[in-house]
Design goal:
The complex is a heterodimer. Chain A is an alpha/beta fold. Helices cover 33% and strands 24% of the residues of chain A. In chain A, strand 2 and strand 3 form a beta hairpin. Chain A is globular, with a radius of gyration of 24 Å. Chain B is an alpha/beta fold. In chain B, helix 3 crosses helix 5, helix 5 crosses helix 11 and helix 7 packs across helix 11. The chains are: A alpha/beta, B alpha/beta. Chains A and B meet through helix 3 and helix 4 of A and helix 1, helix 3 and helix 4 of B.
Chain lengths: 548, 347
Amino acid sequence: MAGKLPLLLGSMLILAGNASAQQTASAGTMVARAASAPVLRAHLEFLADDLLEGRAPGTRGGELAARYIAAQFERLGLSPAGDSGTYYHRVPIISLNPSPSLGISGNPARALTYRDDFVLWSMRNETRIAASAPVVFVGYGIVAPEYAWNDYSGVDVKDKIVLLLVNDPGLHDSTIFKGKALTYYGRWTYKIEEAARQGAAGVLIVHTNESATYGWPTVTGSWTGPQVRLESPATSLKFAGWLTESAAKELVKQAGGNLNEMTRVAATHQFRAEPLNLTLDAKVESVIVRSATYNVVASLPGRGPLANEAVLIGGHYDHLGIRAPVNGDSIFNGAEDNASGTAAVLTAAEAFVRSGVHPARSILFMAFAAEESGLIGSQAFAARPTMPIKRIAGVLNMDVMNLYGRTLDVSALGTDQSTLGSTFRQAAATEGLRVTVDSGALIRGSFFRSDHFPFAKAGVPSLSLESGSAYVGKPARWGTEQHDEYGEKRYHQPGDEMLPWFTMDGAIQQVRVILRTAVAVANTRAQPTWLPGSEFRTAGEQRMSGER
Amino acid sequence: MKSASIGIAITILIALPFHGSPGSDGNVASRVSARVYGAHLALLSDDLFEGRGTGSHGGRLAARYIAAQFARLGLEPAGDSGTFYQTFRSEVGGRELTGQNVVARLAGRGRQNGEAAVIGAHYDHLGIGPAERGDSIFNGALDNASGVAGVLALAEAFAAADFLPARQILFVAFDAEEIGLAGSAAFVRRAQRDRIVAMIDFDGMNIFARTSDTWALGMEYSSLDVDFRRAAREEGIAVRIDPEDASMLAREEFFTRSDHYSFAKAGIPALFIWSGYTATGYPAGWMRDRLEEFLRTRYHQPDDELQASYSYEGAVQDLKIVARMVAHLSTSPGRPAWKSDSPFQRQ
């Protein structure tokens, strides 16, 4: 009976789905107060237990985690929001293990060496692809209307191979793009997507340590062996790959060019794409394995005219499974990454249900699959959403919660991109927390590396929660030291497991901010929008005019 | 009902930290949820739990799941050294086994907080065995995911009501019931038996239909029959059993066949919650047909798995009776007692 009163209040607060700011604040307060530390800890400890075997996609542990999350949604009385009335949203995965070759047409003597000079993989879901095509150097390979930038202007790359640079022109000129802060135009994933839009047959990305922000061994480590991705329809692209800087220089030199000079010009408005006097032959044979995993998704239905729209609260539940042992431990528990975020999603869901608050928009709670394999679950949902993407007003992602203690601040990726940033700051302020910006995360392009991002690309304003760094009762450097230690000693290692000193206090602060943000977005008539200058503004406009 | 809810509303408005009240038995009962019950039952009987065999991966997983639910509800660990787990070794029929009961406490707030009422059900089943028609997983949906789901649904109802018992309430999921009641025997061996006032056991709940009546085994032995009958009356359910069923249960010595028997043997008044037999909306004899069909085709076979036809109104109605009964037992000054002619007596 005690629960019915807040339920009544909650529904009164959102009369006709047009709540005043003050009413939203009290609904936000009711939901925030219902976030429970024992709930968070219980879910976290279960999901991070050795019995869950590291929750890898397609394994017993991964299935158990999904089944557990679905059972919690069911227990809470949330509506299934996956495929055909279930909590599960199917994610088709294809894995291609490539054996590639790359040579210069008409010059059999100068074949390039796999791994030493290049890596290459098929962009088709086929066991064998071959492409022989002329090469066009397209600089950074960027089409960015908001920066009046088009590297493909005046050149036809249809059925050709594009050679391009990673990162964006701001790397060497702080007055263009966002300076050293990486825009999405700088990510290798963007380069491939744009080349496909331009109708190219192949993409070769030139690696340098500085522009990639990682060394060649990371490239060979990541892009040889099975390439796991969402199974999706073919584009014009047959293959993509990386070249070492020296291999690229030599190829360009043979074609009569100078890569250093071309790179310099590529970062200026004077740049024009230029066809090279060079034709390359690429072949890839791939061993293909198909499988499926599942996102787990539930809805708390909204009330009133906005109920067919939603705010999404999500976090990935997969981790790396069982692998070669480190210090005798082979289970990659992924307690912080991301049993903690999954537990936070479940805690947020339970807080809504316990509070009895039903905001105007629905709330989608989602545990993403196969994030560690390349944001595959979230990509799958953005590609085939169970509700039209234009009705998803915003995405709040939680990937690695703060288990170290209470903080004076909190952070999120994407606060500079959309109006969600100011909503988040307001929510944080109500909780007595400052919002800090992690400049390192901007340079690394962290915004492009978790599950909110496929939604951002599809035009949905999104944030990914981060930890604060000013820990209550600790010296100023303590937070940074803890985060560095996690990065060095536990991140993606079996040591990412429940530690006896973990506390839920900081994570509950974070969940409360997310809950307040969600309630504010859900109860505001207008959807959040991208800020002027955001590289996702165009996608956002397209989303609202589209039928998806 | 009306005055109760106003009282609760006022309690909330003046923001007392605790707003359950001892004696509000119906408050707890009203919070027993078919949805919660069904979610736990479906999960525990999933193939991923591999039949919950004692000592197996699936068995350990079930224990871990039950502990996580207790923790989520804010119940206190009441197993070994601050955990929810009570590990035991037993020898049953020459076989050494290690098992794990899962024990949680809702602390008492009165002078009787050294005493406890126990609500229990076994979570183990037969694990993975010889395949029958290609299925080797003995899911044990009715036997006894149905009972464990009952314990969890009751734990959630007591927690959600912020119920404050005078005596402790212990929620226990027993291991190794299928191996000679070994888990409950181990629990009783270690317990301070004179401090346990009563034990209520679920082993195979009514997941077939709502009934107009119900029954518990062991009512003839102790004063718990009075409490059970009162709670049933308050829920509007008759306490009666078909005489044929009664003689079958006696003939098959059902009272000796589940975990409550470990308690009764040790002198602790105990009831085994059975089921009604008059299914609402079905012809007479329908419930007995379900039971006989179950015993014939599913009992201790891989086919004891979740059926689309199962429904949880019957189980929830029996759980509400137990919620009222235990709420009363945990707050009333007196203790249940064996009847003078009972073969069981306090030791």
